[in-house]
Amino acid sequence: MATYAIGDLQGCFKPFKCLLDEVKFNPDQDQIWLCGDLVNRGPESLKTLKFCYDRRDNLIAVLGNHDLHMLAVLAGIGSPKRKDTFNDVLASKHRDKLTDWLLSCPLMHENDDWVMSHAGIYPGWSLQQARKCAREVETVLQNPQLRLQYFENMYGNTPAIWDESLTGPDRWRTITNFFTRMRLVNGDGEIDLTHKEALSDAPAGLIPWFQWPQRTPLKKKILFGHWAALQGVSNYPGVLALDTGCVWGNRLTAVCLETEALTSCDCEKS
Hints:
12 strands, globular
């Protein structure tokens, strides 16, 4: 039995299948962990989502920002953006069951050795605090009344730092941004959500969240996606970046959690 954690799919179904073939994935024994952004920007969001749904008994996916955006549109909050590519999901006869499954997916998943979320773990949180915050938002997403309030207030870059006294939509949005949009923080632990490019071009005073000097030790290795500009290189022990920019024509990458062996498939530009 092997567990394969895989970077952002973003509707790139053919590279996903290629990668599973490369690692000789056995659906009767092996498990897949997906680090979020299953859909959007790539060409086959529906096919990717249906494949994941059909293998939900041995597949764990954490929610990414693109998944949440699509769920908000499916809930009638806002409309697709110009670059969105999930109209196939919106028009599908399977949209309801796929929506229900996505809404049941966690923001964070872990085993004895690894913890995974889409963008990482906020460096000011302990593992216990991260678990608590993830469960809070997951509970909101699974409540039909609170869910609409959540989506109506999901978009925005503030608050940028954790405050335990936060409540309601401000608290939900902050937790969501930490788990699904975070890249850089300043010396005070405030997240910056504007810079998305290479670290070499980062504004002065900002560092990757995993390099924050006061980061709380988690005693587990961290898996995250979201930050394609890192190209899978964190240069930091115990922190593995998995988004290697498949949707931008680069690679889709998997890591075997038992051996830490990496496997990649090249991706054609969409």
